[in-house]
Design goal:
The complex is a heterodimer of chains A (132) and B (416). Chain A has 132 residues and is mainly β. Chain A is built from 1 helix and 7 strands, in the order αβββββββ. A 7-stranded antiparallel β-sheet of chain A has the order 1-2-7-3-4-5-6, with no helix packed on it. Chain A is elongated. The chains are: A mainly beta (132), B alpha+beta (416).
Chain lengths: 132, 416
């Protein structure tokens, strides 16, 4: 996504009569973009389906915000590519061994073997769920 | 030193970014209108598919080897290119974006090898696109270094050592030197100048007499004296052009009018995106040269100068049609047409004139609303009525990938 316009969710109130004494405080607005995205040039959005991550709150239809510039750490949710397939999993790294953990007890953990073609695409920094 | 950063098989790499299942498989990307091959994966190169080859010639080869074919998706490539260039700016203050997949950087350091490796790794990490780097004292030398890196299947090559440079230049044929066209290289070969090394040893007066100053500049660059400095200043476009070759020839005025309106709308949109206004409008139509003998070939061109520069969709389309009216000749097969906007100025610099026709105060806000609706709900949701509504007949993009990065509707949809 190329995030062009910041999205504002709060606007200064305009008074018709005497200027509001708090008007000066409204100079800076809060941008949804600043809140969700650190590096817009390394960020992508993906839409997901499937139930393997429901225990951490990622459901079908959610939009994940993925930042490629962050260094993935243990227990972070990552987007990765395993043998040509995208996966969203929790990263568990013990010494040199990498295991991908699902957040649904019906899905067993996947341990990366040497013959696997594996790379990490980015760190999932947020999930957007819309109710309407 | 000058670093040339060049993306490997750029369009193919972009197509692979969100299709990891296509890694290690042959892929090609086609030019506008699905005509020729303009990018190949290494696997496709190994099959013997040539750059620029028309697709219809190799249909069998493609079918037999299951080559994945993509139409060009320039929205996607442009966005990825922007991201790469942005990242390159973290390495140097002077970055010249040379093309969609190449940039020159000026970097001074003690360890060029370290920086080159760093650039390759970081661009791959942040954007997912593999690049190779050539380093030399000048742009021309960095270009040669980059081509050697590719030849040796390495991701970087540095021309710093004098003896190494001398050896490389004696092995570089003139046709591989940056900026030399077919004509000049042929002329040089006929005169015994076979390699870059030969060119350096050629007398400068002879070069000036027989060729031109640019060849002399290139000779200086090969010797290590910079003649083409990095120009990191963004030079605004001087004109905007939208033109197409048609799949089938167009004979009727009504059809051509639709296309011209479309082109005018697109050109105006580009103009408005850059916050600019145009002083001059040019429209051209060209007949199919394979259909007619040289004599009856017809090219119609005419321009119109606006009294006051404009960025108004309706005005630009209106005058485009008026021009078309004048240049259109009945009974010919038209193959190509286009609209150009020239003499551009920035919106805030525009001059009013007392000759200015009175304009409705609502017109600017109407234009803004058109932009808003098209940005919000997707391209071509609001059109001017003369435009071509049947979008699909315009160009062939049969194998177009989604616009992954720039549209909410085309976002990658992954089963996790």
């Amino acid at each position: 996504m190329y995030f062009r316009d910041p999205i504002y969710f709060y606007n200064a109130v305009v008074f018709a009569g005497f200027p509001s004494p708090s008007e000066d405080l409204f100079i800076s607005q809060v941008s949804l973009q600043d809140h969700l995205i650190k590096n817009s040039y390394s960020t992508i959005c993906i839409k997901v389906s499937g139930d393997s991550m429901i225990d951490i709150g990622i459901f079908s239809g959610d939009i994940l915000i993925v930042d490629r510039s962050l260094k993935p750490k243990n227990n972070q949710v990552i987007l990765c590519v395993l043998d040509g397939k995208f996966l969203v999993k929790k990263l568990s790294k013990i010494k040199d061994s990498i295991t991908l953990i699902s957040e649904n007890k019906n899905y067993p953990p996947i341990t990366i073997k040497e013959y696997n073609d594996f790379n990490i695409f980015g760190v999932v920094i947020a999930s957007i769920k819309k109710f309407l | 030193m000058i670093f040339l950063v060049d993306c490997n098989n750029f369009y193919v790499s972009c197509e692979r970014l969100f299709r990891p299942d296509l890694n290690y498989l042959p892929i090609v990307v086609l030019s506008n209108n699905d005509g020729c091959i303009i990018s190949r994966s290494n696997e496709a190169k190994n099959l013997g598919i040539k750059m620029g080859e028309p697709i219809f010639k190799i249909r069998n080869l493609i079918k037999k080897n299951n080559v994945n074919v993509f139409s060009s998706n320039f929205e996607l490539y442009g966005e990825i290119s922007n991201r790469i260039m942005k990242e390159l700016k973290s390495f140097s203050n002077s970055v010249e974006v040379y093309s969609i997949d190449e940039a020159f950087l000026e970097i001074e350091s003690q360890n060029y090898n370290f920086i080159a490796v760093n650039i390759v790794n970081k661009i791959k990490y942040i954007t997912g696109i593999p690049v190779s780097v050539g380093v030399g004292k000048t742009k021309t030398l960095s270009k040669i270094a980059a081509s050697i890196a590719k030849k040796k299947h390495k991701n970087h090559f540095i021309l710093d050592d004098i003896f190494k440079t001398k050896k490389i230049l004696s092995e570089t044929p003139v046709k591989n030197i940056w900026g030399f066209g077919h004509k000049y290289s042929k002329f040089m070969i006929n005169n015994g100048i076979m390699t870059a090394e030969n060119l350096i040893n050629t007398d400068r007066n002879w070069i000036l007499n027989k060729m031109n100053i640019n060849v002399l500049r290139t000779r200086e660059e090969l010797k290590g004296t910079s003649c083409y400095p990095i120009s990191s200043i963004f030079e605004p476009k001087k004109s905007i052009r939208v033109s197409r070759s048609f799949k089938k020839d167009i004979t009727s005025y009504k059809n051509l009018e639709k296309y011209i309106s479309d082109f005018a709308f697109l050109a105006s949109k580009k103009l408005r995106n850059e916050n600019r206004r145009a002083h001059q409008l040019k429209v051209f139509i060209i007949t199919n040269k394979f259909k007619y003998s040289n004599k009856s070939n017809y090219t119609g061109v005419m321009s119109h100068d606006f009294i006051v520069s404009t960025d108004n969709y309706i005005e630009i389309i209106k005058y485009s049609i008026l021009i078309l009216n004048k240049i259109f000749q009945q009974g010919l097969n038209y193959k190509k047409a286009g609209v150009m906007l020239n003499k551009l100025s920035f919106k805030d610099q525009y001059q009013t004139s007392y000759l200015e026709p009175k304009k409705s105060p609502n017109i600017d806000s109407l234009m803004e609303k058109i932009d808003y609706l098209n940005n919000r709900f997707g391209r071509n949701k609001v059109l001017i009525s003369t435009q071509n509504l049947d979008d699909k007949s315009k160009i062939n993009r049969r194998n177009l990938s989604p616009n992954y990065l720039n549209s909410w509707n085309d976002m990658p949809n992954l089963k996790i």
